[in-house]
Amino acid sequence: MSKLSTLLKDARNDSGLTQEQLAKKAGNGLTANDVSRAERALDVPTDAQLKAIAKGTGVTQKSLLDAAKTARPKSASTAAKTTASARKTTAAKKTASAAKKTTAAAKTSTAAKKDEYTLTATEKKLIDAYRSASSENRKLALDLLQGKDVDQSDASGIGAILQNGLSSGLGGVLETLISGLGK
Question: Is residue 43 a part of any domain in this protein?
Answer without folding.
Answer: yes
